[in-house]
């Protein structure tokens, strides 16, 4: 038998190989292939209904796969029940047992697996101390605040020191401040204990701030899987470009720029924060509305029938109706093929140069 | 000003109170009073007897017999019908094909009047060509047996009918309670490695406790309250073998016309029922988790 501390140091890798799920003809998950490295924090991100929960539940074994294979560690677990997959899960609703006390909730799994009492108590003490629950162990879940309930759910997930932990939007019931705290806490916990985390969220800020790898899903398919920084700096599709970052990236059909009238099959993207005021800039728009954000202002503008936004230092005085010209540095330009949605880095320098000329 | 509001208040309460008193409180108190009097007959008015009626009751072997019968009847019907109700509810709650039909089938006995149920079962029990005799005769070659006419089996036969009638009704309560338990609790337990058996005993059953309390209080009351089928099936016989307390009260009051003594028996029944209900609440209270 391996000791618990050894187990925790090494999470297991998860490989999804072309898994699919259909609900009565509607495809929810469509041939997903994802690699989750051992001990990493992977976020499944995507709009509502894109199949994040379904994917997570298939990894957990709560849902069967229609096709494809799931491997955890070296083992093919596609046909195994969820208790044989050696993982833990935190549900969006926490799923705490309402009739059991906090302590009983946390040790439920250990009790089911008949772990000896002393060992159970010792682990409970450690987990309770780690999560700041020591004073609450005798309460029932209904007597806890949302954040405390969340912590109990976390405690139940980590006490057995499973190599894999799955979470389905665990923070969506919390207020903004608590969400921020729990974000840091979960991330710290994951790094401290070293398990593999698959974390479902529809909140791009959550995904970007916590994850080592973000898997962006769209309509049951992987749109892009990359490190957060990479996803922000080099989105591989217009969808990814607009999903990551607030406000979303501006997309322009290339032909609205006079110099690019021959490149009608391209879409150009520039992030609002990359735009600068400049009298020679290639984008000549009209300001429609100005939103004051504190340090910055967000200008809602229009160029040749296409709306876009620019985030500018608040020192800039802008008024609706005014015309303004914007420029950006060539490395901030994203070029996409309109028809296929592919990123065209090969054209970036060329297009950038033509726009400046 | 305050007085006016009081008057309005009482006036608003009045209609409900009139009915409540006329049909509940006054009869109950009259019964209590009557239990201390002799039965009025012809020109002879009721005479105050003190506790004579109660002494008679304690010395009455039939009273003890029907009380004993009633105890057996309760022990025979309650656990079985509650257990069956849980089983059926779990089964019907599962995702199984045609569960709407199964649900309805289980509920049918509840919809039928008890008298009709008793008539159906009368046919099942008929010696010789009843359903049971035909089956046992065909399978095991048993000779005809008179389940309802034999003092040994009469009460059990009545118990079976009652279970059949009640389980479906209780199932509906369990079904509603089961559907109120979030699926994620079961899934969380599964992830923690719990099998069906553990999930039932550690999660589902404790969460069904409020329903179990409600259902078992009802079952206890029903075991003293429901006697319709006895009229059809056995008429209390043979030799009071299947008579229950309420049935005996009916017989005393409306067959033998001893209303004074019947009032005494009724008071005994009411005391018994209240004790049982209170006892159950105390017994369960520590074990029931309320949301
Ligand atoms: N049990 C089910 N039966 C039928 N269809 C389902 C079921 N569960 C999910 N779906 C469908 O599958 C698709 C993906 O659902 P899923 O729950 O995975 O979305 P999601 O990405 O988690 O969305 P959200 O962010 O809103 O939770 C949806 O179109 C949904 O309607
Ligand atoms: Mg979801």
From TrEMBL, chain A:
Subcellular location: Cell inner membrane
Keywords noted in UniProt: ATP-binding, Cell membrane, Membrane, Nucleotide-binding, Translocase, Transport
Transmembrane recorded as keyword: no
SUPFAM superfamilies linked: MOP-like, P-loop containing nucleoside triphosphate hydrolases
InterPro entries per UniProt: AAA+_ATPase (IPR003593), ABC_transporter-like_ATP-bd (IPR003439), ABC_transporter-like_CS (IPR017871), ABC_transpr_MalK/UgpC-like (IPR047641), Mo/tungstate-bd_C_term_dom (IPR008995), NA-bd_OB-fold (IPR012340), P-loop_NTPase (IPR027417), Transp-assoc_OB_typ2 (IPR013611)
Major subcellular site: membrane
UniProt topology in membrane: Peripheral membrane protein
Pfam families from the UniProt entry: ABC_tran, TOBE_2
Domain ABC transporter: 14-244
GO molecular function: ABC-type transporter activity; ATP binding; ATP hydrolysis activity
Stored PANTHER family: MALTODEXTRIN IMPORT ATP-BINDING PROTEIN MSMX, TREHALOSE IMPORT ATP-BINDING PROTEIN SUGC
Family note: Belongs to the ABC transporter superfamily.
Protein known as: Carbohydrate ABC transporter ATP-binding protein (CUT1 family)
Organism of derivation: Roseibium hamelinense
TrEMBL record, chain B:
Assigned GO CC terms: plasma membrane
Membrane topology annotation: Multi-pass membrane protein
Record keyword Transmembrane helix present: yes
Transmembrane domains' residue ranges: 7-33, 71-92, 104-124, 154-178, 199-221, 261-284
Organism for this UniProt entry: Roseibium hamelinense
Chief localisation class: membrane
Keywords assigned: Cell membrane, Membrane, Transmembrane, Transmembrane helix, Transport
Annotated PANTHER family: ABC TRANSPORTER PERMEASE PROTEIN, INNER MEMBRANE ABC TRANSPORTER PERMEASE PROTEIN YCJO
Domain ABC transmembrane type-1: 67-282
Top-rank taxon: Bacteria
Location within or outside the cell: Cell membrane
Family indicated by similarity: Belongs to the binding-protein-dependent transport system permease family.
UniProt name for this protein: Carbohydrate ABC transporter membrane protein 1 (CUT1 family)
InterPro entries hit by this protein: ABC_transporter_permease, MetI-like, MetI-like_sf
GO BP: any one term: transmembrane transport
Cross-referenced SUPFAM superfamilies: MetI-like (SSF161098)
Pfam families: BPD_transp_1
Positions in coiled-coil regions: none
């Amino acid at each position: 038998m391996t000791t618990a501390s050894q187990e925790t140091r090494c999470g297991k890798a998860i490989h999804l190989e072309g898994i699919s799920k259909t609900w009565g003809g509607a495809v929810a998950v469509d041939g997903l292939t994802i690699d989750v490295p051992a001990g990493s924090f992977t976020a499944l991100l995507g709009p509502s209904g894109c199949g994040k929960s379904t994917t997570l539940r298939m990894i957990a074994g709560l849902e069967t796969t229609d096709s494809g294979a799931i491997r955890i560690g070296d083992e093919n677990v596609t046909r195994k029940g969820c208790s044989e997959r050696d993982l833990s899960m935190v549900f969006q609703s926490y799923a705490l047992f309402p009739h059991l006390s906090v302590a009983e909730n946390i040790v439920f799994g250990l009790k089911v697996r008949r772990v000896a009492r002393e060992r159970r108590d010792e682990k409970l003490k450690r987990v309770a101390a780690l999560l700041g629950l020591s004073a609450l162990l005798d309460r029932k879940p209904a007597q806890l605040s949302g954040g405390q309930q969340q912590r109990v759910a976390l405690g139940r997930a980590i006490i057995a020191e499973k190599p894999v932990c799955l979470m389905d939007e665990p923070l969506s019931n919390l207020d903004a401040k608590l969400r921020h705290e729990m974000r840091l806490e979960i991330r710290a916990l994951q790094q401290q204990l070293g398990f593999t985390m698959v974390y479902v969220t529809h909140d791009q800020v959550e995904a970007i701030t916590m994850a080592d790898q973000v898997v962006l899903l769209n309509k049951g398919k992987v749109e892009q899987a990359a490190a957060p920084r990479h996803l922000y700096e080099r989105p591989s599709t217009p969808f990814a470009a607009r999903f990551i970052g607030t406000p979303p990236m501006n997309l322009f059909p290339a032909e609205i720029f006079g110099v690019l009238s021959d490149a009608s099959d391209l879409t150009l993207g520039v992030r609002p924060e990359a735009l600068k005021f400049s009298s020679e800039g290639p984008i000549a728009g009209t300001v429609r509305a100005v939103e004051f954000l504190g340090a910055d202002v967000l200008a809602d503008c229009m160029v040749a029938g296409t709306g876009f936004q620019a985030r500018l230092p608040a020192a800039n005085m802008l008024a609706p109706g005014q015309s303004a010209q914007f420029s950006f540095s060539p490395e901030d330009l994203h070029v996409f093929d309109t028809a296929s949605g592919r990123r065209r880095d090969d054209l970036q320098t060329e297009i950038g140069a033509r726009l400046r000329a | 000003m305050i007085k006016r509001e009081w008057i309005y208040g009482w006036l608003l309460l009045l209609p409900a109170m009139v009915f409540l008193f006329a049909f509940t409180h006054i009869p109950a108190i009259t019964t209590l009073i009557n239990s201390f009097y002799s039965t009025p007959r012809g020109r002879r008015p009721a005479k105050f007897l003190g506790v004579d009626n109660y002494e008679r009751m304690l010395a009455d072997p039939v009273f003890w017999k029907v009380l004993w019968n009633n105890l057996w009847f309760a022990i025979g019907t309650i656990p079985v019908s509650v257990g069956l109700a849980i089983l059926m509810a779990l089964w019907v709650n599962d995702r199984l094909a045609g569960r709407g039909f199964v649900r309805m089938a289980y509920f049918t006995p509840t919809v039928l009047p008890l008298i009709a149920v008793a008539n159906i079962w009368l046919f099942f029990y008929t010696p010789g060509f009843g359903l049971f005799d035909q089956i046992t005769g065909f399978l095991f070659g048993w000779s005809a047996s008179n389940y309802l006419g034999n003092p040994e089996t009469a009460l059990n036969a009545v118990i079976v009918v009652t279970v059949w009638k009640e389980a479906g009704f209780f199932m509906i309560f369990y079904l509603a309670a089961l559907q109120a338990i979030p699926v994620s609790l079961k899934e969380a337990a599964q992830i923690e490695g719990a099998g069906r058996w553990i999930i039932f005993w550690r999660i589902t059953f404790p969460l069904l406790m409020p329903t179990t309390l409600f259902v078992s209080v009802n079952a206890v009351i029903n075991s003293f309250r429901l006697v319709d089928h006895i009229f059809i099936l056995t008429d209390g016989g043979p030799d009071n073998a299947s008579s229950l307390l309420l049935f005996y009260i009916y017989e005393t009051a409306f067959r033998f016309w001893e209303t004074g003594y019947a009032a005494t028996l009724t008071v005994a029944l009411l005391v018994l029922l209240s004790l049982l209900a209170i006892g159950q609440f105390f017994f369960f209270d520590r074990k029931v988790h309320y949301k």
